[in-house]
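Blinded run. Sample ID left blank on purpose so nobody reads anything into the name before looking at the predicted structure. Input follows.
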Amino acid sequence: MSVLLPTTRWTDACGELATQLRDSDELLICHDDEDDPVTEREEHPEGIRFIAAGEPEGCSGKANAIAAGMEAARHDRLVWTDDDFHHPSDWLATFSADYETHGPVSEVPYFVGRDPLSMLLEPLYASACSLPLTLGNQIWGGAVMFERADIDESAFLDELRRTVSDDGLLMEHLQVTNVGRTRIVPIGGTIHEAVERPVRWTQILRWHFPGAIAGTFLLSLLVLAGAVLAPIYAAAGLTVLHLAVNEVLGVRRWTAVLAFPAVFMFVPLVLYGLVRRTFVWSGRRYRWHGKFDVTVIE
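Blinded prediction complete.
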């Protein structure tokens, strides 16, 4: 199999995945250019190849890296993953066994905040992002395995080089079984990052799943109205609801008690995400005019 890991720096995930490769497997570190810090490492485990994707034009940096990695990969079975969460020693072997049983498979992220705003929004990320992926058999680009024959690869790569969201697009080309294993993914670190993330996610829903963003916004308004009119009942209900969501996801976090105040931030952030003209992702600013109309501003 070929494991695609978009990253510009060497993280723990690089070493974790390298130790899990079988003799015929390969790990493709998909980065931007030869000046990236990840290429400065003098020694690295066998089975690793560095793929310089170049600067993105008309798509996100991650979409560009994934496209370059798929074109360079030597095998038909592909794994997409991210560099920001822990991959236990049996991760690849378990994932492969899942594929043999179910066909294309994916896992679930649980986003844990590293700054006050991201921490406040944890319950809503769990209920609005992680839970639907689990219950709806949807794809998380940080952990998905499929084979080239499972998609129309030529059409997919053409579209991937003209859009922002790798997994949002893959959902339109591939049906998976979400095996429900949850991976803890730290996010944020600064308030700026915490604000930019929901902008990007809102625009992904806007262009790929417009019905979902409309429903999410309407439901959020109704919940917000209930929180204003009956705050005690709303606080109790939302806390219990998010404790239940965490149980389904197999995660126990005290931040479930923040569900009530988070509602008052969520609606303005969704609205802000819909009207915002640009957003920043991994150091680049993008203007997303349409699903396949993207400008890299800087």
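Unblinding after everyone has recorded impressions. Strands lie at 2-6, 26-31, 48-52, 77-81, 105-113, 143-147, 177-187, 278-281, 284-290, 293-296.
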